[in-house]
């Protein structure tokens, strides 16, 4: 039996960088072809037969590396996650001021989110995820959770420094990601706008980050005292109106 056709156990979920090993070239070729077919034709319409035929390998070779189509889709999603990991590694522990850090993270996240293949992946997950919960789980764990962890870590550190209000950093991270990329991704996915970064998107992004920081920044002491006075006056005025 040829080494490429030897049946092996493949873990249900591999984390981290792309596969390496004795037959890395063939394995990467399979993932390349699967990525193209999944994003072009969809998950359900893509067969393991078609992937094997496109790569010139046997189904036995294919299943030796990926026991199911879901395993293969997980590796495709892992490649997306690996690409985004560079964004997170640049952000974490950089020591930059919060405004500069969030601006960089926002730009990198948006640039990746509005790319042609990211939009295709979004469409696939929306169109087929409701029937195949496993797809949604893979998409969430591979693509969304790392973003949330990175941004929430940045915000949690800012809370400790007293730079932002003490709210749930995970919730605020989710709002940040939605504000940065949600509108743009949906408009591209629905066909209203083309994919890719544009000057208009960059201009909107700057506004979004500024508004976000205005909303979560911890008020200074003078502002707190003034807000307390204003609240007291409001209560007094309210009391007079009610009486």
From TrEMBL:
GO molecular function: DNA-binding transcription factor activity; transcription cis-regulatory region binding
Basic and acidic residues composition-biased segments: 1-12, 233-243
Sequence ranges assigned to domain HTH tetR-type in this UniProt record: 24-84
SUPFAM superfamilies: Homeodomain-like, Tetracyclin repressor-like, C-terminal domain
Region (Disordered): 1-21, 223-243
Entry keywords, A to Z: DNA-binding, Transcription, Transcription regulation
Keyword Transcription among UniProt keywords: yes
Entry-linked Pfam families: TetR_C_7 (PF14246), TetR_N (PF00440)
PROSITE patterns per UniProt: HTH_TETR_1, HTH_TETR_2
Name this protein carries in UniProt: AcrR family transcriptional regulator
